Amino acid sequence: MAALLRSLLAAxxxxxxxxxxxxxxxxxxxxxxEEKRGADKNKKFLQDFKTLADVLIQEVxxxxxxxxxxxxxxxxxxxxxxxxxxxxxxxxxVQVCSTQEETAALLQKVLDRNWTAAELLAAAIHQEMVLSxxxxxxxxxTISTESLAVWIDPIDSTNQYIRGCGNVVPVDGIYPSGLHxxxxxxxxxxxxxxxxxxxIINEPFFQEALPAHRWQSKYYWGIAYRGTNLSSLSQPQxxxxxxxxxxxNEKAGLxxxxxxxxxxxxxFASGAGYKMLCVxxxxxxxxxxxxxxxxxxDSCGPHAILRALGGGxxxxxxxxxxxxxxxxxxxxxxxxxxxxxxxxxxxRWANQxxxxxxxxxxxxxxxxxxxxxxDAF
Length: 377
What we know:
33% helix
């Protein structure tokens, strides 16, 4: 598990570097946008985009981790298709080639023959990442990788990544929008039980280093397996007056239902992964979502980190059903191994019942008790 954790963290750092690189030059960035269509389109947005950065990051993680752990190679899944259409109408299958030169030659087809951009990206893709993190030396847990699988969200909150600003001011520590909500999410789960085991959240745009105006990344990780919990984070302090973080377009009915519990402490932010990170950091007591607009690749990594801190992520719809029936001790958590029956495209992997992310069970119980008697639910 220590070797897998190191491999995934190194891949997340390389992913962060690619995300940063694709934002540095606006002229370059304008080449990298392609609108999603058909079954891959997220119904939440009128315009949902995928970027070459998304696809590259996903393929880099699959390549680097799969090379080190061949038994996982066929069990690493991501949000994006690796097919990309360039401005000349050509469809290119994006992949990591054997050499930097071959990868650059492939990428220049996507980038409308822009060799400079292709060479910059290829260099980042083939860069060897060396982690210097003494905390990883203490990870001695052993788990067979034969039963594991991986979910990747290469850039969560893609719309904020494309349009996001780097100078958004946080409100009580929470960024309502902007580049801070664009995260790399990696989750490892048991492919037989669907239980999340290991999670990584990487913030490519954690802080901007002056005077060079270069972004610096930061990562967090957590492991929860058979009663053993390890994390780069400490359990946040239990707040007497907690806040809840919601999506900016959350239904008015949910906001009204939660108002008696949280009063003026309703906070709003972009990005599912970022809101889950806010809970893990103790910036909010819970993240509540009433709709099925998140996916397995959004929640798997953060879920494992929250479990390592003593919390979790429940299926809101199923949990409300159990709560009202009197089953309040073990509310149903999200799992990651089974697609939604009867759904197609991205919807096969949607968290259709909504969710509640939390660290402290007290917060979860307060949310459930409030929503269970609300008229809107």
